[in-house]
């Protein structure tokens, strides 16, 4: 039992066997108490107290704590900054933050107060307009929204809500946004959930086909390996005379 506790302590904290034994012996090999004391000494006291304010269990902030945390930050749950925060803290599911990530990520930024977190999140959200930053956030969002490990797709309504949040972060022309609105109408009429591949490829479609020519989508190649739903979207636009002619 003690050997397992030592190994678990080393894995959680990244420390040596000597350090693990020191803290575990002090706490009669109670892993939670030993880890809590060690982490409390490694991280800023104010930051550690913030985690304790919101924690649901010794190693996690749950949904109630998250709502309280967001309220203190002045952020509504549906605010895009809530999504940016979840990405920054590497949340694996909605409304949950691990103790390790909360303490480590804020410590890396030398941030330990709510006021500092607000300022950093505002700047981080502005930076999401950078293509590489946005692509990373976009990719993160699909898995973040899944409710179970076996879930493979998301409903059109949920995806549209988050597409709207995400696309507010990047500069897109009105005619591009209009074409994206037509995509929303299309997938709502289909009433089919979307898998991760379709979700990821839709943003590639926007970048490669919609943005260069939103009127006629002349960059679309039916022989390219787009997901079926995107091919069907093009057919929908053609059948409803929603594409501009490419003839000069």
- CATH third-tier fold name of the largest domain: Recoverin, domain 1
- Cα radius of gyration in angstroms: 23 Å
Strand order of the largest sheet: 1-2
Give the N-to-C terminal Cα separation.
78 Å
Going by CATH, what is the homologous superfamily of the largest domain? Cullin, PONY binding domain
Estimate the strand proportion: under 5%
As for the number of domains, it is 3
The number of helical elements comes to 13
Order of helices and strands: HHHHEHHEHHHEHHEHH
The SS-based structural class is mainly alpha
Please give a handful of descriptors for the protein shown:
64% helix; two-stranded antiparallel ribbon; 13 helices; mainly alpha; two-stranded antiparallel sheet; 248 residues; Recoverin, domain 1
Topology:
Layout: H1 2-13, H2 17-26, H3 31-42, H4 45-54, E1 60-61, H5 63-73, H6 80-88, E2 97-98, H7 99-108, H8 114-127, H9 131-145, E3 153-154, H10 156-167, H11 174-190, E4 194-195, H12 196-210, H13 228-239
Helix pairs in contact: 1-2, 1-3, 2-3, 6-8, 6-9, 9-12, 11-13
Function: Neddylation of cullins play an essential role in the regulation of SCF-type complexes activity.
Pfam family, one: Cullin_binding
Organism: Candida tenuis (strain ATCC 10573 / BCRC 21748 / CBS 615 / JCM 9827 / NBRC 10315 / NRRL Y-1498 / VKM Y-70)
